[in-house]
């Protein structure tokens, strides 16, 4: 039997993972790479080190396959991070500028002051924020950046890996990654001349935009892995997770509970109008041109609040303790924690909000504090989902979850009670890598979408049990706490 290999190039490391067609446990290898912080607010990676991590992990996985046929390779990646390199030599011209980097914040403020935000929202579905790739590309083309000539290539990490895998033969990206650059017209799925002019990024230096599922090219003997393997799937990490969770129908959604959380809802094949507090993105485009769009809510702090309990306050000694500690009390005793440590994300987008603890009494214990942290995860997700359903007019059909905090049964029951829908946790939670493998295998006929649906296996299911009046009253208290946290840094 055969396999499909996913290359999951994340923010701190690269994981290559073989997904077997017969359902055997996957084989994987992982390598971290260096994080560079040259100035406050600047974050960079060495693109060559990323590629070396890809080669090393691929070689380990392929070596463990014992001759099994490799049907395809898929790529998923940290989104918005940009790379500049020379087409003739394949050498980077600058360190990669990471999605977390804030060096273009002033430029984004200037564009907003000039009235550019409505056009950016309408065309790209994004907001003017240094998070996205467009102003990073523009910075690279300016003073202190790179030499601009015909040999220059500008791309996101997926394009860099694809270029190297194919020996410099293919310079392309997929629609999901392109939709995070602030340069793509969401409706035409092509680079926007207006956005390129606005940001000062020549389209001729950007990769070709292709479907997320479809053959991009073949591996080259020059890339250090077996030659002739089809590279047939590419998607940004959160979109890949949405696909890996089988959220194929409008109204289906996933939440990844990590350091922060990303909630994505499939809203179908029609690009929605900009929604206040949310991002509009392309989820994926299949080989036949069928495109699914998604609304995205970015929650800045979920698991990071658990780390704060552990490292900042010493309330727990290990992150795994938070679930049992929180479950040791039936409620928070009326206390709320708003973990706006770095501001609030969707749907508030308030950079001046700050962390707030309200409702404390002499009876408040460390267990109540732990439970308030867990409940805040559920409340923040409800806020994002409420905005999504209002914007799309599509009710939530259910929520599929992954990420470290999804191991907490208490959290998932609270989430089901707050949303009023069933929450499902899969057996295999490496959904980002699965999505990349599935997109590639789909393109090569390894499986159909129906067969993919049948591969998804349930670990646990949580149905709403709380009284709706009680659940809504708790959420109302949360909203009161959020209002008290907002704008705090301005006062």
Which features does this protein show?
single chain; 491 residues; Nucleotidyltransferase, domain 5; seven-stranded mixed β-sheet; 15 helices; 33% helix; globular
In short:
The protein is an alpha+beta fold.
Describe the structure.
With 491 residues, the protein is of the alpha+beta class. It has a domain at 3-245: ATPase, nucleotide binding domain (Nucleotidyltransferase, domain 5), CATH 3.30.420. The chain has 15 helices and 23 strands. Strands 17-18-16-15-21-22-23 form a seven-stranded mixed β-sheet. The chain has a six-stranded mixed β-sheet with strand order 3-2-1-5-14-13, sandwiched between helices. Strands 4-7 form a two-stranded antiparallel sheet. Strand 2 and strand 3 (27-32) form a beta hairpin. The chain starts with a strand and ends in a 6-residue tail after the last helix.
Low-confidence stretches: none
Radius of gyration over C-alpha positions, nearest whole angstrom: 22 Å
Sheet with most strands: strand arrangement? 17-18-16-15-21-22-23
- Helix/strand/pairing category: alpha+beta
Distance between the termini: 64 Å
CATH superfamily of the domain at 3-245: ATPase, nucleotide binding domain
Helix content: 25-40%
């Amino acid at each position: 039997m055969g396999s499909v290999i996913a290359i999951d190039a994340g923010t701190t490391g690269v994981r290559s993972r073989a997904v077997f067609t017969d359902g055997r446990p996957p084989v994987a290898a992982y390598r971290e790479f260096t994080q560079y912080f040259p100035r406050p607010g600047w974050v960079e990676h060495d693109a060559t080190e990323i590629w070396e991590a890809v080669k090393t992990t691929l070689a380990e996985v392929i070596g463990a396959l014992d001759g099994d046929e490799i049907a395809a390779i898929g790529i998923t990646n940290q989104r918005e991070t940009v790379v500049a390199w020379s087409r003739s030599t394949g050498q980077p011209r600058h360190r990669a500028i990471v999605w977390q980097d804030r060096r273009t914040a002033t430029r984004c403020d200037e564009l907003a002051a000039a009235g550019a935000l409505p056009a950016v929202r309408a065309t790209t579905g994004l907001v003017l924020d240094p998070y996205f790739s467009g102003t990073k590309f523009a910075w690279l083309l300016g003073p202190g950046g790179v030499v601009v000539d015909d040999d220059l290539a500008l791309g996101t990490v997926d394009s860099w890996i694809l270029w190297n895998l194919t020996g410099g033969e293919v310079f392309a990206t997929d629609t999901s990654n392109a939709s995070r650059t602030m340069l793509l017209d969401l409706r035409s799925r092509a680079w926007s001349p207006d956005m390129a002019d606005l940001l000062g990024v020549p389209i001729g230096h950007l990769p070709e935009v292709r479907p997320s599922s479809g053959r991009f090219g073949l591996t080259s003997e020059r890339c250090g892995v077996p030659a002739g393997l089809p590279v047939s799937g590419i998607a940004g990490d959160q979109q890949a997770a949405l696909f890996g969770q089988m959220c194929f129908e409008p109204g289906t959604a996933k939440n990844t509970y990590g350091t922060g959380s990303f909630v994505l809802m499939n809203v179908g094949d029609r690009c929605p109008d900009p929604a206040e507090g949310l991002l509009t993105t392309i989820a994926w485009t299949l080989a036949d041109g069928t495109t699914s769009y998604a609304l995205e809510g970015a929650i800045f702090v979920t698991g990071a609040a658990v780390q704060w309990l552990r490292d900042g306050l010493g309330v727990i000694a290990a992150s795994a303790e938070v679930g049992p500690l929180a479950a040791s009390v039936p409620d928070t005793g009326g206390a709320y924690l708003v973990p706006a440590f770095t501001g609030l994300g969707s749907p508030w987008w308030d950079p001046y909000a700050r962390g707030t603890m309200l409702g404390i009494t002499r009876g408040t214990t460390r267990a109540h504090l732990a439970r308030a942290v867990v409940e805040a995860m559920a409340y923040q997700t409800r806020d994002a989902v409420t905005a999504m359903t209002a914007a799309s007019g599509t009710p939530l059909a259910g929520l599929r979850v992954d990420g470290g905090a999804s191991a907490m049964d208490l959290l998932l029951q609270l989430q089901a009670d707050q949303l009023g829908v069933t929450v499902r946790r899969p057996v295999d939670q490496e959904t980002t890598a699965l999505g990349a493998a599935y997109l590639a295998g789909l393109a090569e006929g390894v499986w159909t979408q129906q067969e993919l649906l049948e591969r998804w296996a349930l670990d646990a299911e949580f149905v709403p049990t709380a009284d709706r009046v009680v659940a809504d009253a708790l959420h109302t208290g949360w909203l009161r706490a959020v209002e008290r946290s907002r704008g705090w840094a301005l006062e």
